[in-house]
Amino acid sequence: MPGPRNRTKNRPRNHTGNGSASNLSVVSQSASTEAFANEVDDVNGWTEIVKFLCEYFRLPDLNRRSGLKRIHANFSEIYRKLNNAYTSHAGKEKIMGGIVAIWAKMCVDAVLRNRLVREGLIEKIMPLMDMRSTRVVGLETLATVTHHSGLEVHIDIAKHTPTLLRLMEEFPDNARINELAVSTISHAVGSAISADVYNRALVQSLDVPNVLRQVTNAMRKPTASVMLVEHGMSLVTAATRHVPEDIKALPPLVSLMAASLRVNDMSARCSAVVTFIRINHNGSEEENRHFDPQMLIKAVERRFPGHLVDVMCDYGATQCETWLLAKTAGEYQKAMMKVAQDRDLHALGNTLAELIVRTEFSVSDGGFQAYDDRGRPEMIDVGLPFKMWLDALPLCAKALRNARGATSLDLDKADILDIKFFIIRSRIPEAIAHAEKAIKRNPHVAYFYYAIGLGANQAQALRAVKKGLKAKQTTPFVKYYMLWRAIVSAGNMGVTGLAMAKAGDQEYSEGVAFLMSALDDAEEFFKIAPPDARHMSVVVNWYIVLTFAIRGHELSEDLRELEPALKRLDISRQITEHIGFPYKKTQMRLSREMMMRMWPKALKDYASTITHYSKLYEEAAHGPKEERSVTNAEDNLAAWLDDLHLEDGEEGRDMHCVHPRINSNSVELYRCSYCRNPSAALKKCSGCAKARYCDGVCQKSHWSDHKATCKTTDS
Ligand SMILES: [Zn+2]
Ligand SMILES: [Zn+2]
Ligand SMILES: [Zn+2]
């Protein structure tokens, strides 16, 4: 947008300000005011106008932190001067625009920003929107203030959304106006609708459905810039928090999100995936929490349909969950009958420890019974130190520990028994505490990590099971159970993290790392888990959703790459139904179904948008490049607003939110080099500063592999 036109000097002058007053000092001020206005009129281009004004008002260097500090020290006086000039030249576009731009520049400093906002800065910016030459300056200023402000100011700015939407309607093809309006709306309205405390009245007053509709229209335009698209995406993500129904009610937007799954950019796909997951929360059902092993045993007795038996035989019937469970239940009974005879708790401990790591429902409560004379079962005392079978576990553990010449293996078994006892009694914190102690004694037993993985703390669980997956003493059941836990924890943490973070933030990269970790583990799960694994359908749903996020751009239009996973899902559903468990409409299932349902049509309807976005992101990835749609080379006010040399080493925030692109390499920084645990809190190898680890244990375990590359890395 060019600066204001240079008017001829010899036109009749309009008296402004207090010119009509008789007071002498005011008259002289009026004269100087008039001279000042004429001088500004002679300056061309916004950068020059701002420079002129800074000199005229003798302002310190606004590009330097030290200059801003000096403004801070003399704020009242400087503000009064600028404000007088602004108010006494109403309608003078160059003066109003230039002064507002100076204020915007001051807004990079939080203290100055708060003072300016309190003085009514936003109200002073808005009149610029309706003057031809100041419109873009006004929008740039508002965008700058928005990018530097917090919730309170955002709410103030959000109230002016109707003006911004009107500009978007009036100038549908002006890329700069649209990207500035959308980025301002994205931050201001986005903050208001995703605030921790949901303010219903405020959100309703913002008319989110209309905002989303107009932003969607702007995002679909072939002129949409990467800045506009990313800010539009952020707004949609923000809306998923409190008003997901507003997104669901807007088919073109949901369709655009489905199309974004195909775009050649990880953050675009991840944002779309997060949107699908979060808009499917309402109306979804909880996963089956309670699991009755008796139903499984009955299902085996009823016999599975032939084609399901075939699938289970292909895997290895004796390794399938159903079969193992039935077999283990029988062996458990037998072991108890045996101990009633021989009273050998040591031998019982050996057997139980083996059963416990074989399948999830290995031991259950029961007791020794006999039938009374009326044929009713009653508990009998067979002379053992326990009555209820589960109470045998700690006693067996003790027997193993106290045996003469107890080996390390005996101690492992004893710990497994103690831990299982706590688990089955739902005393999870005690199970975790015991497992942590056991790991200190022997870090190679996967079951100990499995136990920590049962905890409610997802980060702790994930960290533990990732280490457990590397443990040498393991069984298929313990392994695929830990994989399931790793997938769900990392998936949930990734989605939550991405929804809260802004693209480009460290938290955002960490969120993507979580999703990649979950996808890796889902692939591993398919390799080792039996077709009747209890968590199969959960994993398949996560797998497909995560595949869209990480590899959506590589998927075929007919999604044939997902067929093997869908086949697993179908088998799992049939097995679940045969057993008699309900096939729940979980959030992940609904999300997966919605994405797959919308995909074919979205690809057709939005073919040109997908190409356009992919090109935008491709260009952005090969930056640095001017990403703003500057329409006139002369107008580099935006660059001036962006420019700040901070002498104190403080990091300046990029006020235009042009984000670094995320790819698998940048995400790699958030994965442990040994156990692949995703985390932002990893420690670097001091040798090469490249490898990253959860802790010294992971580093030590990795050293035999890493030492070769660590030493060859020049640093
Ligand atoms: Zn931004
Ligand atoms: Zn690690
Ligand atoms: Zn190293």
UniProtKB/TrEMBL annotation:
Keyword Zinc-finger: yes
Compositionally biased residues, Polar residues: 15-24
Location of the region described as Disordered in the Swiss-Prot/TrEMBL record: 1-24
UniProt feature coiled coil, ranges: none
Residue stretches of biased makeup (Basic residues): 1-14
GO molecular function: zinc ion binding
Xref: Gene3D superfamilies: 6.10.140.2220
MYND-type domain boundaries: 672-710
Keywords: Metal-binding, Zinc, Zinc-finger
Keyword Zinc-finger applies: yes
Protein name: MYND-type domain-containing protein
Organism: Steccherinum ochraceum
